[in-house]
Amino acid sequence: MGLSPYGNPEKYDLSPFLSVSETGYYCDVSFIRSNPPARSVYEPSYSEKLVELLGEPRKPGSEITRRHMDIAAAVQFALERAAVSLIQYLHSRTGLRNLALAGGVALNCAANRIITELPFIDRLFVQPAASDRGLALGCALYMANQEGCPAQPLKHAFYGPTYSLDDLRETLRLTGATFCECNNPAEKAARLLCEGKIVGWYQGRSEFGPRALGNRSILADPSSLEMKDLVNAKIKFRESFRPFAPAVLEEHAAELFEIPYASPFMTITFKTRAEWRNKLQAVNHVNNTARVQTVSKDTNPLFHDLITHFHAAAGIPCVLNTSYNVRGQPIVETVKDALTTFAASGMDAVFIGPFLLEKQPCCS
Questions:
Q1: How many CA within 13 A on the CB side of residue 288?
Q2: What architecture does CATH give domain 165-358?
Q3: Which of 123, 176, 215, 258 could form a disulfide with 271 if both were Cys (CB 3.0 to 4.6 A apart)?
Q4: What pLDDT digit, counting tens, does each position of 264-296 carry?
């Protein structure tokens, strides 16, 4: 998904594998490994037939070439075509104009943008845990419905464990870490971002789903292309092409992006407005789109306050927001997780609740 804008989808034809049909799409399962079945996620799930179509697979860690970019573009194009065809079919059957998606493919935010632009779709909703982990939410909603409890709108994704202020303070004390307590952590964090610092932000209950939405986040200034490269190389330890998301004040989102409604779960990309592209180089992808998270004062007042302070100081109502983890690791849950990742990466500072830790301490 992130690599596809760099390639040419016309270089590879994936229609023998995935094509559109009258009822949505058709997938030729002979391209998928079935004999013997894969015994783990680390084994190839494709058959030799796909290798014959696309060539030998890239080895992990090897150079990403133009060919790989073209394959990524072709795969993304095939997926988008199939998704649009399926949605067109469902719309023809139901006439409904509001669409809710779930499942791992629904986390393809680039395809979701194409869906939002369909003339017969008024609104798209993708819940934040739109993958296998979302089954837990589905089971809970099913049982609630069985017990006569109506489903409520999903306003946020902060369903992790609760840690009290005393819990945080005592855990930090036991680690022997040097820290200070800030009267206004949001203002202090914004000031550090303006100084070009990369800041860990560990607050409240963790997010349900794969996206950090302002409680288990790594934050940075969104304006500098060098900042994008720095976070990829020194913090996330991942490929340089991988884009980052902007967390933008909900009330200013339409000024920066072509966004028709709030998108609080970072599940859809939207076009960046031309006048903002140079000001948002760290979060504006090569195809001038961004995986936007709108931040509401009602839902996450502390994170909203941080971005508001950054806006006042830097003139930009958004920050770069990426998940608080390094490549290959889950998003941090406990204070110990947060400190371990902080120590092992190039972050400059981290806020654990109101408590600030800096690699070059300057608590003021």
A1: 11
A2: Alpha-Beta Complex (3.90)
A3: 258
A4: 999 999 999 999 999 999 999 999 999 999 999
